[in-house]
Model the fold of this input.
Amino acid sequence: METKTSWRRILRMSLAVPLAGTIGSFWTQIEAASVNQQQSLSAETISARQRFFGLDNVDPKTGAVRANRVILSWTGVSSFVAAFRGHVVLLDAYIVRDGGASVGIWPSIQYIGSTPEELAAVKPELILFGHSHFDHMGDLPTVVRANPDALVVGTAEQCMDIEEEVTDVSFHCLSIFEANADLGTVAEFPRHLLPGVGITAVKQPHSSGPADPEADPPFPWAVEGCRTFPGLAFDQFPVGDDEPLAWDAETFGPPSGVISIMWQIRVGHFALAWQDTAGPITGACQRRGEVGCETVPEAFASLPETDVRLASIVVAGRSVLAEHNEALAPKLFLPIHHDACGYFAKKDLEEFVASLPEDQRPMMWFLSDPGDYLRPIVFDPRAKAWRDGARPHWSWDQPDDFDR
Ligand SMILES: [Zn+2]
Done:
């Protein structure tokens, strides 16, 4: 089959060699982590897991997370505390807030009502880098210090940044892409490291503003009205002097900055794509000296079918949403990174998705803040909706078809 051939070819070219030498040294670490997961967890961890995943999804005695569901809990921007087959995984690591960047885009951490310490207390086995800007990985050092057994995975540049930042504990960061890997490079996470879960990474571009903002306007984000209107998030939750700082917030994050990974995570027939940022991937898409943006659609098309796509909708022009949607063809789309002013983008988003060609139009679930922060989003990976060849014609006004 054409897609399989392409998939294997890309994997052979890009990954087999660099990973082969490193798997062994991480195996022991993950084995140890798995053993730890079977022991009773601390009251603090059980409580944090209940907070993020919901009381129904966490064993109150052991802290084990329900294994027959995929569970996501939004902590703002593009970050999620997630569980796949009961394995706790962080997709980025940030509790949304200003964090010391003083760009005025986020209100106080009180708005979400959680803390970096509570995030760290969930005791993840695995932490995936989307990209390292402070509003994505700003709490990674805190999480790593509290969870030295957790495996961190990113590009060589991202691993170098966290290894330089956290030197007081011993932990492992797996470089799934070598430094300066081309965009569109595909890499598979070693399957035995997280049993029963398939994970694939694609090097992809960070967002960038549209070349012609009039013809291809971005969706509204952090709009002035949201930040100044009485009674809204910024008025109710002004940034305090004692807000916890994010990792390298004053420089918008560590040097690896815009280097970005798209992750596809699979359980059985169910496949989720997570993009904490999304940049142009067709036409004159090259930015910032990174090469290969035009190969990203082919890389996406080489992946197993994506069911659910969670992706940033900010900064880039609307055409970027259409390009990625066409390449990944998800059944369901959850826009992210709209933060505390999300509802200013909601109408435009709905209209834009409705305008996509009918055979490329996903159903959309809009995440609203603050109501959807820390609210478990639950998928049954065995549901008929995800099975190959059963791609139904979803009408986006029938959300009851999904178990949420
Ligand atoms: Zn960014």
Remarks:
- Residues 1-36, 390-404 have pLDDT under 50 and may be disordered.
- The chain has one domain: 2-401.
